[in-house]
Amino acid sequence: MPACPCQSGLSFEDCCGPILAGRPAPTALALMRSRYTAYARGDVAYLARTLAPEHRAGFDAADVSAGMRETQWLGLEILDTKDGGAADSTGIVEFAACFRAQGRLQVLQERSRFRREADQNWVYVDGETALRPAKKPSRNDPCLCGSGRKFKQCCGRA
Fold first, then answer.
1. Distance between alpha carbon 103 and the CA centroid of its chain, in Å?
2. What would the 3-class secondary structure string for 84-108 be?
C-alpha cells in the first residue's frame, strides 16, 4: 500500500484516503493533513468542499488546478496544534510544507485556522502564511518527501 502523502506514517487507505472520499475528518489536524494530500494529488473539488462557506465564492478552481500542475509537493511537517480535537469547535494547526515550483525548492509555513460546522464537519477558515526558500538537501540526505530514499535518487532528480 502506498504511503500517505501527508507523511503520517500510515498508508493512504488508512489515513487521508477515506477522508478525501467523503468520511468526515475527526479533527482539525486530520482535515489539514487531508487538504495537504488533496494538493499533492490534485483534488481541487475536495479543497473547495472543505473550505469555509464564506470563502467558497472567492475560490478559483481553475487557478488552483493550474498551480497544482506546476507544483510538486515534497513533504509536510506539523509544527504545532492548538485545540481542534474531537470535542472542540475550533482549532489551529501550524505546518511547514516543502514543494518544488518552477525548479525552485520552497517552504510554505502556515498557521491555519479551522472550524467545526453545525453538521460536525471541519472546514478550513484561513491562515497566516510565509514563503521561504528551502535549504536544498545534500545529495546523500534523505528525501524531503519521506520516501526513505536518498534525495538524489528521488525528488532531487528533477
1. 20
2. CCCCCCEEEEEEEEEEEECCEEEEE
Instruction: Return the DSSP state at 17.
Output: H
pTM attached to this predicted model? 0.88
Quick one: average pLDDT of 7-33? 97
Instruction: Kindly list the strands in the beta sheet with 71-83, ordered across the sheet, starting from the edge strand earlier in the chain.
Output: 71-83, 90-101, 104-116, 122-133
* pLDDT tens per residue, range 44-91: 999 999 999 999 999 999 999 999 999 999 989 999 999 999 999 999
End-to-end CA distance of the chain: 25
Contact 38, 21 (CB under 8 A): no
Type of residue found at 82: K
Write the DSSP symbol of residue 3: B
Q: Cell 493550474 sits at which residue? A: 66
State the DSSP string of 48-66: HHTB-HHHHTT--HHHHHH
Q: Nearest 10 degrees: CA dihedral of 17, 92, 72, 98?
A: -130
Phi, psi (rounded to 5 degrees) for 146: 85, 15
Indicate the DSSP class of residue 7: -
